[in-house]
Design goal:
heterotrimer; A mainly alpha (288); B alpha+beta (342); C mainly alpha (269); B: 342 residues; alpha+beta; OB fold (Dihydrolipoamide Acetyltransferase, E2P); five-stranded antiparallel sheet; 25% helix; elongated; C: 269 residues; mainly alpha; MetI-like fold; 13 helices; globular; transmembrane (chain C); transport (chain C); MetI-like (chain C)
């Protein structure tokens, strides 16, 4: 229904929100963009100018290239593994007729709201040299020397998969809406076996949800800071930890800003690529 | 009281000019999308007219915001507030008017008794049946002594049986309180049985306004004739001695219309079924019959036309194909502007 | 049909799902076990059982000042976020105006920006303005982070409420403000509660952006915890983590009861 309030009222209602965001979001983001083109003159000094020095540093120093590559690798690995782990769980939650379905869904999503610092701490305990995993392995006589997982890339991956699993489940269960039992039953009645049914019916129909989950986890993990810092134990360097270090320890703000822009670009590329993939998959699934 | 909206909201309501008399009930009747609800919401102040004025008892209220117009409105969905009790809903308008608590209590109790819901005052809205909710909505609108009572499809959310009994109830409440009322409906029976006058709307305009009888017996055009009741329509040309209809010859009529193409209207009740041996009227054959207990409606092919004919049921319906003759009083033929000429 | 294969498939699926749940809750359970351990450094299995770590939490001054800072920030953030989000959601759901879609996209877009970048951006702008290491700066930053969640939950509530109730109140003489307070607000209460709990939690648990803006004056609890984890991760840290986890789970239940967890967290409907 048409309302009697006119546009000025609408914009009036938006003023507080727009004001906060312009000041504490849009302005800082633009300021970062500008900062990347300033020159760092050592000891926390910054010359206001227009130079691409910081970008030159990022793209010529093999160290930063390696950090960028580690970040992308981490994003890819974590997103793929998370989605693989989340897939059976999401499928189960969408299909189950159990009366505990509500509870099971909460159990799968609730960890999302548990402090990520606290959860990372849990992984430190599990993966540490004298932690749960190594105790179990030693108890079973499988190994004598502790398996190095903490302070390692692999440990960071394991922890991030668990931390982002609820996000993936949330994205995938809402993307699996198209799944319809009757379709699989129809396929079965036509003589399709269990595996054919999965490959020809279930998988294509769930693909859009899978892509959404992949993208979400990818963008979350390339910007993760707490877990790589704690589990990585100062040995796993990613763009996020480098940005923090440059900004607060080296006080090289132009470089930190340039690294942030690199991260944002990786972010943007991922969103675009997944957007294109998603559209193609949607078209394929909807049969057009 | 006067309301005019020349060209308000171009597509929705276009040049509607209505005057509602003190104490009368006016029905806005039309198919969905004809602009009747928009008109009502403009009167309420919920929609702002693009142009035109709304006047209540000589006072121009067009610029008065909705909450200061002092009207009462019953919504199609009843729009009861689920977080308040029955009494809380009814008292809402009185709260807004800052009435003393005792006075408020008295008036709420009084109106709830009038709608026979006194015993349910403390119930939650969700615990009421559809009919009870409708009565609460009516009580809530009437308890504030509104200058005008507006009803937007007040019965369409209810089932058929309940609708009929609530029709009379609403009408009686309106008559006894003497409130001027405007109600919107797409149901012609509702409009004809409840309203003092009916305004038939079509595509944002008022096609005709008049008492139910005027509108039924002397529809202004083919749209009104077919929207209200059923009609046999015969296209022809008006000459000096009557309407020339192909196959039927010249039908004598009384009309003040100038000669030219016209559409003649013949209500199914006005057509009589004669015994076959008679030589009057036109010969035809029964095409189909529909029996509804107290009457039988035949469709009869005669002289190249198909007529709908209502007869009082006095036995088994005639067989399909049976030979009959039909006839009518010359005065029963009404002359309307030709179809498709607007 | 092949019932044996069916049953095997069902059981293998159940086992797999159970294992995934174990994986999901393992670190949380482990923290709980470690928190009642008597040893002073990280190890598993525990050496003995005691509630001393919990006593230590409450007698460690850093934890207590961190807790107070976090509570102050989260409380102010929640109140401001709710007020701003309610206004914005009313505009989005109750009016149609040019630019509505763009404004909505803008107000929810902080969700798409990596927190590490947002934190840096805020540090860079706020330190010349002397807003870092102040409650004003931290609360502003947290409002930006919480706004998308609150707008989401409140808009969902607003768009499911029947507008004709508001119309009815207005016809009966309620001014726009009275209509909002006596009709709209009671009807959208679940969404407002869910939005409040989520905002409080997002602010209370926020570590990365706070890390950039925290300083000598104000150190929110997650930042304190982060520092402690790097240096001395003993049972008292586990105890604190358990308390935080319990707090979060209570909040989850509150959101679930108010609006439904899935509906509240889904950023795109």
């Amino acid at each position: 229904m048409t309302r009697t309030w006119r546009p000025p009222v609408a914009w009036g209602l938006l003023v507080p929100g727009l004001a906060v965001l312009l000041f504490a979001y849009a302005a800082p983001m633009l300021w970062v963009l500008r900062m990347a083109f300033n020159r760092f003159i050592g000891g926390g000094g910054i010359e206001i100018t227009f130079t691409v020095d910081s970008f030159a540093d990022v793209f010529t120093d093999p160290y930063y290239l390696r950090v960028a590559w580690t970040t992308v690798k981490l994003g890819l690995l974590v997103s793929v593994v998370t989605v693989i782990v989340a897939y059976p769980l999401s499928l189960f939650l969408v299909r189950t007729t159990s009366r505990f379905r509500g509870l099971l869904t909460i159990l799968a999503i609730a960890p999302m709201l548990v402090s990520s610092v606290a959860r990372t701490y849990g992984w430190m305990v599990v993966l540490g040299n004298q932690g749960l995993l190594n105790s179990v392995l030693k108890g079973l006589g499988l190994t004598d020397t502790p398996v190095q997982l903490a302070n390692q890339f692999s440990g960071v991956v394991i922890a991030l998969v668990q931390i982002f699993l609820p996000y993936a489940v949330l994205a995938m269960t809402s993307g699996f809406g198209r799944l319809d039992d009757t379709l699989e039953q129809a396929a079965a009645s036509l003589g399709a076996g269990r595996i054919t049914r999965f490959l020809r019916v279930t998988l294509p129909l769930t693909l859009p949800g899978v892509l959404t989950g992949l993208l979400l986890v990818f963008v979350l993990s390339i910007s993760a800071y707490v877990t790589p810092r704690l589990i990585g134990g100062g040995r796993v360097f990613v763009l996020a930890s480098e940005i923090y270090d440059q900004a607060t320890n080296q006080l090289n703000w132009p470089l930190a800003a340039a690294l942030s822009l690199v991260l944002v670009v990786v972010f943007g590329v991922a969103v675009t690529v997944f957007g294109l993939l998603q559209r193609r998959v949607e078209r394929w699934v909807s049969g057009r | 009281m006067r309301k005019e909206y020349p060209g308000a909201q171009a597509p929705a309501v276009d040049g509607v000019d209505l005057r509602v008399r003190q104490g009368e009930m006016l029905a806005l009747l039309g198919p969905s999308g004809c602009g009747k609800t928009t008109t009502l919401r403009m009167v309420a102040g919920l929609v702002e007219p693009t142009a035109g004025t709304i006047t209540v008892a000589g006072r121009d209220v067009t610029q008065v915001p909705v909450h200061r117009r002092g009207m009462g409105m019953v919504f199609q969905s009843f729009a009861l507030l689920p977080h308040l009790s029955v009494a809380g809903n009814v008292a809402f308008g009185l709260d807004m008017r800052k009435l003393p608590a005792a006075e408020k209590k008295r008036r709420v109790a009084e109106i709830l008794d009038r709608v026979q819901l006194g015993h349910l005052a403390q119930r939650r809205i969700g615990q009421l049946s559809g009919g009870q909710q409708q009565r609460v909505a009516l009580a809530r609108a009437l308890v504030v002594d509104p200058s005008v009572l507006l009803l937007d499809e007040p019965l369409s959310a209810l089932d058929a049986k309940l609708r009929e009994s609530l029709r009379t109830e609403i009408r009686e409440m309106q008559l006894s309180s003497g409130t001027t009322a405007v109600f919107v409906t797409h149901d012609q029976d509702e409009a004809l049985s409840m309203a003092d006058r009916v305004a038939v709307m079509d595509a944002g305009r008022v096609a005709q306004i008049g008492t139910p009888q005027e509108i039924y017996e002397n529809p202004a055009d083919v749209f009104v004739a077919t929207f209200i009741g059923r009609a046999n329509l015969l296209d022809g040309v008006l000459g000096t001695s009557g309407v020339d209809v192909p196959g039927l010859g010249t039908l004598p009529v009384t009309t003040s219309r100038p000669p030219g193409p016209v559409t003649a209207l013949l209500r199914p009740q006005a057509v009589q079924l004669l015994d076959s041996p008679s030589s009057q009227g036109f010969a035809g054959n029964v095409r189909s019959a529909s029996y509804t207990g107290d009457q039988i409606t035949y469709r009869i092919d005669a002289a190249g036309h198909t007529f709908e004919v209502d007869t009082v049921a006095t036995g088994a319906p005639l067989d399909r194909g049976a030979a009959v003759r039909i006839a009518w009083e010359p005065a029963a033929v009404k002359v309307l502007p030709p179809r498709n000429a607007t | 049909m092949n019932t044996l294969a069916d049953r095997a498939a069902r059981w293998s699926q159940r086992t797999l799902v159970t294992l995934i749940y174990v994986f999901l809750w393992l670190p949380i359970l482990v923290v709980a076990v470690v928190s009642i351990d008597t040893s002073t450094f990280l190890r598993f299995p525990p050496q003995g059982f005691s509630l001393d770590p919990y006593r230590t939490v409450f007698s460690t001054p850093e934890f207590m000042t961190g807790l107070v800072s976090s509570l102050i920030i989260a409380a102010f953030t929640t109140v401001i976020t709710l007020a701003v989000a309610i206004c914005a959601s009313l505009a989005f759901t109750r009016q149609s105006f040019r630019g509505s879609g763009a404004a909505q996209a803008f107000l929810t877009s902080p969700l798409l920006v990596p927190n590490i970048v947002l934190g840096l951006a805020l540090l860079l702008l706020f330190s010349p303005l002397a807003l870092n290491d102040t409650y004003t700066g931290l609360v502003l930053a947290h409002v930006v982070l919480c706004l998308p969640y609150a707008i989401r939950t409140i808009s969902v509530s607003l768009s499911t409420v029947d507008v004709s109730g508001e119309d009815a109140a207005r016809v009966l003489g309620a001014s726009p403000w009275v209509t909002f307070r006596r009709v709209t607000l009671p009807l959208i209460r679940p969404g407002v509660i869910a939005g409040a709990v989520l905002s409080f939690l997002v602010s209370f648990d926020e570590a990365v952006v706070s890390l950039f803006l925290a300083g000598y004056n104000i150190t929110p609890l997650p930042v304190t915890l982060l520092d402690h984890l790097e240096t001395q991760a003993g049972p008292e840290v586990a105890a604190l983590s358990v308390l935080l986890i319990l707090f979060s789970l209570l909040a989850v239940l509150a959101v679930e009861r108010a609006l439904g967890l899935g509906r509240s967290l889904r950023t795109r409907s």
